[in-house]
């Protein structure tokens, strides 16, 4: 008798263990990373645009809280590691994350570094979420199967502005662009948008970046004399489009034109993913949660990071998995949808990994309008009127 | 002659007393509009606190409860004098609530704090705070008083809270941004709207209260972008035969057959239709239309809108006195 009691006890213990293991089998521990690459940069034109130290990271903290609250009902936990690195230290920072077992990394970096990071992540089977780089090539020939784009492309933002201008019946544009490569890429997006929506760029001016004084005591006096003369004797236009991705002159444009016209693009009415005054569609709740946590207003970068991690959280919630390949499949599938305080669900383009999302048109104080505009239709989704559409994309990595 | 006039006056008073009142919370105007449900004329408008949204009545119709969201309190008004009697502790940012049919407690969704607050309306004290998902909003109570359902807009769940111990016993994942929950009167079914998902989830309720997701109902209106079909408020007739769903910026109320769960009809109403309430006897259904600042009165039997009446700025919710 005593002999048999041992295996009996063992069996009972095993049964208890099995019962305990049942919920444990469903438990998922999601570990993600946010990697922000800090480039040497000049001060912004406006102090309001100074980069907060916790840029991106504050969005990650909020996303962890949101995901964890939901996860608590499902046995899912979330932990995100946030790291800032100089460009030369970015790969090492990523390697460290990968070594710790992190398989989802939100990256805020320029296109070249982003690609190098995505390729390194691919070797470890990790998924990268692009939180900032707007380059079109990343959504075209340079796309990567493990790289999803939360940030809109230059083309999506330019199209958002173009639709609004066309809706307003302001089709004649004066394009004023900067001379840096990023500024030229942005200007190209506006040329493309004009053609796509039937607007006309009547004239272009390139405002050369001579590295001059930006925010000096006498800067405004210089600007007041120089800018109007630079912009005189242009053809008749309804609108000035500013393409200044590097933030060195556009902010001065609205009140220093020769001909009084509205400015859109890099100044005046700007296309953004989010801003701190947006209230529609329940966004007030997002703003108050963010402000309580970060003690400042939200930026586009914070929102993009929050959204990237919410995409991850939503996919984990619905699939109960933490396998990067399975999650990416779900994210790119028709089943995926996510509310993002923009009045309609955000989804992904399964041919290039770009998130479809409405773009807010922001004047520095309020949401003036939201694109896509009424009347711009598409056979799949009105959101596909913004940015590269399937036939225009050279991306083959997702096939 | 004199006595005749007197009789007439008495009759008028009597019929006046019989007609009910509809109370509409005006989110941006910070007021409550009072309408006569016999004539559908506005009787008066009074101050309702800052950002009034959720609105309901005590079972006897004498007390009006209003979620004054930006005041972090529930304001209680006399439905005859419109005077504020007192406030109830609600937790921060109360958005929507549901009152137990006995008149207490009040179950309040605190949108900013991921909580449901349970408040005793007699002792004016908080009985419990129940942690729920992110951005709690929709609230419903089962006819047997045993369950309170809360929907959380960012977590995308319906949480089933036992009223015995205020613990969550079940969670059902629904589509994006669930806004409202409504039980059928027999308690066998629960409907949950998902504003961004564009669907209504139909959840079957077992005898012990256990919920099972049965199916999701989608909507389709020719000439209206699918993105605009955003279900918010839901009302089921007491016999469960018709389910009415407010479709937000689609400016329509969908009518669903309670048996086949097919959409039968779409009724055009005002702009950005939000919440709804039946008159006693379910003769009429009143909708609040946030962007056109009016209400629409729907003839329930005919399934037709018969009247719209201007109210205050951005009407949000509506409550109608019982007979």
TrEMBL record, chain B:
Residues 1-19 form the signal peptide. It comes from the Bacteria. Pfam families: Lactonase (PF10282). Keywords: Signal. PANTHER family: DIHYDRO-HEME D1 DEHYDROGENASE (PTHR47197:SF3), PROTEIN NIRF (PTHR47197). This is YVTN family beta-propeller repeat protein. It comes from Alloyangia mangrovi.
């Amino acid at each position: 008798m005593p002999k048999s009691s041992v295996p009996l006890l063992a069996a009972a213990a095993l049964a208890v263990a099995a019962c305990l293991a049942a919920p444990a089998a469903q438990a998922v521990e999601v570990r993600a990373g946010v990697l922000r690459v800090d480039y040497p940069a000049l001060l912004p034109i406006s102090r309001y645009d100074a980069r907060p130290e916790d840029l991106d990271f504050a969005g990650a903290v909020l996303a962890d809280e949101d995901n964890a609250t939901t996860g608590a009902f499902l046995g899912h936990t979330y932990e995100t590691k946030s790291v800032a690195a100089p460009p030369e230290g970015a790969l090492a920072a990523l390697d460290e994350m990968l070594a710790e077992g992190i398989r989802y990394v939100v990256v805020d970096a320029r296109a070249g570094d982003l690609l190098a990071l995505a390729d390194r992540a691919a070797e470890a089977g990790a998924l990268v979420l692009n939180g900032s780089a707007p380059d079109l090539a990343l959504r075209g020939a340079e796309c990567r199967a493990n790289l999803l784009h939360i940030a809109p492309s230059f083309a999506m933002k330019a199209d958002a502005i173009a639709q609004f201008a066309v809706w307003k019946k302001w089709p004649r544009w004066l394009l004023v662009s900067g001379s840096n490569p990023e500024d030229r890429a942005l200007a190209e997006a506006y040329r493309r948008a004009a053609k796509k929506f039937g607007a006309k760029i009547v004239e272009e001016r390139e405002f050369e970046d001579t590295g001059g004084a930006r925010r000096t005591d006498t800067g405004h006096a210089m600007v007041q004399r120089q800018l109007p003369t630079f912009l005189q004797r242009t053809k008749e236009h309804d609108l000035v489009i500013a393409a200044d991705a590097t933030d060195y002159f556009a902010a001065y444009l609205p009140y220093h034109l020769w001909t009084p016209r509205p400015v859109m693009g890099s100044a005046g009415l700007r296309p953004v993913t989010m801003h701190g005054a947006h209230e529609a569609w329940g966004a007030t709740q997002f703003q108050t949660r963010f402000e309580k946590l970060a003690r400042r207003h939200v930026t586009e970068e914070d929102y993009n990071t929050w959204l990237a991690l919410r995409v991850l959280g939503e996919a984990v919630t619905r699939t109960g998995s933490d396998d990067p390949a399975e999650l990416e499949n779900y994210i790119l599938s028709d089943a995926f949808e996510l509310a993002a305080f923009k009045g309609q669900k955000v989804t992904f383009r399964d041919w290039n990994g770009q998130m479809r999302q409405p773009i807010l048109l922001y004047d520095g104080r309020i949401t003036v309008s939201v694109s896509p505009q009424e009347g711009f239709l598409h056979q799949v989704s009105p959101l596909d009127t913004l940015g590269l559409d399937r036939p225009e994309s050279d991306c083959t990595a997702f096939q | 002659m004199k006595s005749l006039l007197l009789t007439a006056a008495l009759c008028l008073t009597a019929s006046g007393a019989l007609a009910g009142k509809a109370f509409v919370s005006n989110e941006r105007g910070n007021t409550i509009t009072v309408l006569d449900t016999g004539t559908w004329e506005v009787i008066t408008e009074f101050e309702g606190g800052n950002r009034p949204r959720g609105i309901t009545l005590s079972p006897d119709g004498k007390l009006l409860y209003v979620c004054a969201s930006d005041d972090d309190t529930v304001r209680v008004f006399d439905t005859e004098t419109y005077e504020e009697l007192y406030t109830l502790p609600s937790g921060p940012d109360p958005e929507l609530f549901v009152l137990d049919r006995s008149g207490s407690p009040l179950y309040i969704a605190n949108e900013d704090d991921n909580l449901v607050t349970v408040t005793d309306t007699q002792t004016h004290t908080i009985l419990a705070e129940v942690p729920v998902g992110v951005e709690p909003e929709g609230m419903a109570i089962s006819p047997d008083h045993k369950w309170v359902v809360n929907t959380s807009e960012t977590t995308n769940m319906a949480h089933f809270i036992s009223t015995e111990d205020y613990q969550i016993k079940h969670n059902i994942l629904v589509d994006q941004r669930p806004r409202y929950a409504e039980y059928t009167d027999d308690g066998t079914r629960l409907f949950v709207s998902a504003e961004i998902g564009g669907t209504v989830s139909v959840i079957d309720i077992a005898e012990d209260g256990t919920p099972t997701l049965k199916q999701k109902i989608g909507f389709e209106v020719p000439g209206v972008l699918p993105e605009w079909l955003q279900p918010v408020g839901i009302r089921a007739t007491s016999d469960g035969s018709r389910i009415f769903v407010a479709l937000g910026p689609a400016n329509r109320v969908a009518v669903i057959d309670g048996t086949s769960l097919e959409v039968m009809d779409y009724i055009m109403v005002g702009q950005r239709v939000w919440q709804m309430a039946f008159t006693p006897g379910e003769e009429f259904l009143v909708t609040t239309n946030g962007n056109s600042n009016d209400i629409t009165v729907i003839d329930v039997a005919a399934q037709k809108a018969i009247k719209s009446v201007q109210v205050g700025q951005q009407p949000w919710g509506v409550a109608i006195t019982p007979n």
